[in-house]
Amino acid sequence: MAIKYGASAIGLVGKMPSGPGVIADRLIYEIVRIIPPSVATFLLTSETQADDILAHHHRTQTTTIQLVDRIQLDQYQRLRDELPGVKLVQVIHVIDHNSVKEAIEVSAFVDAILLDSGNPNLQVKQLGGTGRTHNWDLSRQIRESINIPLFLAGGINKDNVQEAVEQVKPFGIDLCSSVRTNRHLDETKLAAFFSAID
């Protein structure tokens, strides 16, 4: 359904401490097998150790790994060594000016940065799917400070997507909550969103 309306990548959500859209690794693998080669497949993983991330990817075989939590900088090289053909996208949860510093530091190790509105500092981590926007001024500052593509997520919907694009000028937009009803992808909302960005 998402591809029909124009999605260039599909996010497949592995085990998370919170948020919508979680599906079993076996189902992720089965979906990856039927996605056209022109569409990227993103494994959203909350694992933070290279061995666990590698094992998660081995079970799913996506083209891209989206790291939704912080990992130690030395873990990136291990992922690069073991998975040279797989893209790495690091999520930065935009909370304050420390998020800008974090994004700049991490940008040297990954293929893209994705800015979201979660909070990994809570007792139950929020690692995406909150439906909340964050400070787009900080997002723009991050985009202007890094030399790799930037995706923007966090509360983006048909009513604010034009403003988000104009203000931040991201490489791409990531959606979750705004195109769901009762935790399932909603075709009417999906169609309305893609109409809003045409």
Descriptive account of the structure:
The protein is of the alpha/beta class. It has a single domain, classed as Aldolase class I (TIM Barrel, Alpha-Beta Barrel). Helix content is about 35%, strand content about 20%. The chain has a seven-stranded parallel beta sheet, covered by helices on one side. The chain has a two-stranded antiparallel sheet with strand order 8-9. Strand 3, helix 4 and strand 4 form a beta-alpha-beta unit. The longest helix has 11 residues. It is globular. The model has no long low-confidence stretch (mean pLDDT about 90).
Query: Strand pairing plus helix content: what structural class?
Result: alpha/beta
The CATH homologous superfamily is named Aldolase class I
Please identify the top-level CATH class: Alpha Beta
Q: What count of structural domains?
A: 1
User: Order of strands across the biggest sheet?
Assistant: 1-2-3-4-5-6-7
Helix content: 25-40%
CATH fold-type name: TIM Barrel
CATH architectural grouping: Alpha-Beta Barrel
Cα separation of the termini: 17 Å
Q: What's this entry about, in short?
A:
With 198 residues, this protein is an alpha/beta fold. It has 8 helices and 9 strands.
Question: How is the topology of this model organized?
Answer:
Elements: H1 2-5, E1 9-13, H2 25-34, E2 40-45, H3 50-60, E3 64-67, H4 73-82, E4 87-93, H5 97-106, E5 112-116, H6 136-145, E6 150-152, H7 161-168, E7 172-173, E8 180-181, E9 184-185, H8 187-197
Parallel strand pairs: 1-2, 2-3, 3-4, 4-5, 5-6, 6-7
Antiparallel strand pairs: 8-9
Helix pairs in contact: 5-6
